[in-house]
RNA sequence: AGUCCUGUAGCUCAGUUGGUUAGAGCACUACACUGAUAAUGUAGGGGUCCGCAGUUCAAAUCUGCGCAGGACUACCA
């Protein structure tokens, strides 16, 4: 144990960061922080797995800081907090990264490169940035077990996923369905809604849109429409995707919408037509200015097209059932089609009020078509499978890829050939650029020529794009496996209400609304690198089997081998019940190995694996179970069990529909429980101008550089205290710098001050504690505040509000501890005897510093650990190896003295006012003054101020304080209505009462003070105002220099007597001498010999205050001399035009 | 398009149950202090509390309608 407190020559937080890291590593502090809590209650934390194939950014620092703060805090509260790191390893980002680096596309997988090789590449690639992640985690001081992480591609991890899938399957939550889904031809996979909801997916794009004319078939059903119509009658329908028009099989109308016929000409062909559209939208298609244009004068090509709205009106219901001719007769649908149907979602907000229906390319379309018995436009491919008109690469089917019989019976080859093989979006064809005509344009032009297009124009609309390939998404019919989350929707909402969300609005609003509009979770992904769906099916799909463990799979394979379906069992070496790594290394549950496994049904039919992978969000949402290899290695004899649910998780708000959702869904469906009880969802990190950070814009902040430059502590402190974590953070390096100077600099200075003098006096912290009641007022004050602080910080951390905790600590350190306590007590520390009072001061300051270190440790783990150790290794109190092993202090209510805190506020205010008065009169603080006077409002106030009298006097350098009780009326008073008291009583009369009070004279005030009431006449009514209804304060004391603020008024005697003048001069001397000492490089404790050259203006002062000067400057001798040797002496200015020489020499 | 969040000094943020002089830090200006000194103190300037309307004796605060920014949701053609 060293006897001296360590003194530093500067504060380098970046270096502290490095030093403390080394110690943690050497001492295994993190491990100890967990093991030392063994046997205590646990606090369960789940780490959301990042994907290690991307670089960590500054935004990762904020969510990881939040996690770390809570976990460290809970550890300090005595909980055992295990923290297992994890890696998200599957999924599209990895695959696309590999495709890019190998220079291949999805089409090439299985051809140019085997699936096995491809997946091996993914496995390798996904972990490429783990080094960087570990490094950042380490440097930023995020304590999490990186040595034993869970990895989602691990066989054991996958085995748990299979187990869970089987559980869901057995509960009937897993089903196969066909729906229209977002599909990315470029990525070759369907996209889940969460993927589609990645930021930036919806973008404004300008597309060619087309309002097409659908010719009404004249028959019995449509006869009523043909009333008064000569020639051709059309329905108008608008689409933003003209490429879906060949797949049209119906038109939808709103059942309540009113429609009208309009007689006009087709603007492109000039042919006379009658068109049907919603009444509300007539004006959108026909300019009222053209209403008078003559039909007779119209020539094809004229810009102004005449029109006439026919009076007859129809509702959507009337139109339902009317047939129309196929718009683009390339391919015949197999079944009923080309009829008007009703759709409840049809509105007249845009388009024509008649909606083109292509059931193969729209979810709503599919739904209403099915309901009306309308067939979709289906193609049969050469494998005999049903398809929409567009293949999976995003182009119209080539004839060669279709079934020959189908082509013969359903396809109009002459018309279709020209368009077969065309990509529906230019983005899908690498050979096409933006300049090339899109299919939309070509089809629109074709329709124009055929008198089938009524209007063609560019239109900007919002369209979803694939989050990885940036290319537009297609809505496409896909076979998929779903989890029936809708079945537990109500329960999920109920359970969600029990979760403590920070901020609350994310839980009730964003997450709650999402749950209200829940759809089934689409689990399928048609890719390669991911968790395979463990379902095997017979070819006809009638028998299926869901596999829930490796053991079960091995057993099933044995059956297949026995039946001769498989040659041998590829997983034959696997030993059931052996959970060693070696055993699990014998199998690989990924593709292509599982694809090669053929099982056999009870009836002896072959069963093949459903080729899909599962959504990666299932991987991460299942981490509570899979990280422990549930249930295989939990709930065993050794007592290990599932750690569930979490007490706490934290991630970015962008995870709301991702991880937060999948955790919650699985927790609800599998265990009928929440998966987490408390959650902080943090906002985004933006650049200092509020823009999103991106590599492209070059405004991304590198976390490594930032930590290297500033150290992690100020970075963490800044991120946490600058704004609430759920608000977006406008990241500004100047903010870190400010935190460093303001908070860490001040704290460091305070410690340095303490260490300097403690070492001089030999204070070690081992001294017997001075009883709190024996300590001076100011010590008890700061200790009171300290305990208030402990309370506040604890409450803030407990309610997951680290921002409040950090701000409270910072305020205490900079305002109360440094700026008031230390500043006012400097004299107690330097000079003078090593008395009880001095020890009390040291002990008080020591306690504050140590407590601040412990309170702040969760947020600033590095510097606080150093500070803590610098203090405790000397004192031996509470001397644990690290601050992170300590217990959080408990507030001692008995030490909290609110009255004391209040009167210290008075002291601060009075001092500040006196200093302001001095400034006004240009009276230096070094010049002592005789008296201040304070009018007394009540006894309590008097008692309070009396107690801090000395403090104030020394702070402002004044000799005495006089209390004025106003009996003689020397005070000028001010009176104000007390609105809070008057409001409820008088309501509407407030304005008049306020006016009455404001015009009260000094006599009136005296009266109300005497009688405690006064009568006011308001609107001929007499109102009795009591003393409680007003606030009275003194404002002025005639003849004195007065300052007044709120309730306080202070008067200052500015008369400088000869005596005061002399004392002032003495203090000037002390100041000059101290400066000389310092300039000469003397030690604080060095004794000196002083000579001062005589000067009329100062002689008396030096003689009268000789002892005072000597004691303050540690002068053994002090003499006035006739002349100081000029080389030895220094010329100093004592007062305006008063100069003399001083000689300072060290005593031998 | 809908939902949610945010909007207070040049910048970053506080602002309790509505109560009458709207605060702090940074930055700026001036002054002071000088044994915590790459600190510190005091004072000053700087505000349409996004706008409008309403409720109320009283609105930064509550309500409604807008505006701006952000996030999220969404294939309405």
From TrEMBL:
Its main location: cytoplasm. ATP binds at residue 695. Keywords: Aminoacyl-tRNA synthetase, ATP-binding, Cytoplasm, Ligase, Metal-binding, Nucleotide-binding, Protein biosynthesis, Zinc. It comes from the Bacteria. It is found in: Cytoplasm. Residues 779-931 form the Methionyl/Valyl/Leucyl/Isoleucyl-tRNA synthetase anticodon-binding domain. A motif ('HIGH' region) lies at residues 50-60. Gene3D superfamilies: HUPs, Isoleucyl-tRNA Synthetase, Domain 1, Valyl/Leucyl/Isoleucyl-tRNA synthetase, editing domain. Belongs to the class-I aminoacyl-tRNA synthetase family. IleS type 2 subfamily. It catalyses: tRNA(Ile) + L-isoleucine + ATP = L-isoleucyl-tRNA(Ile) + AMP + diphosphate. GO terms for cellular component: cytoplasm. This is Isoleucine--tRNA ligase. Its cofactor is Zn(2+). A motif ('KMSKS' region) lies at residues 692-696.
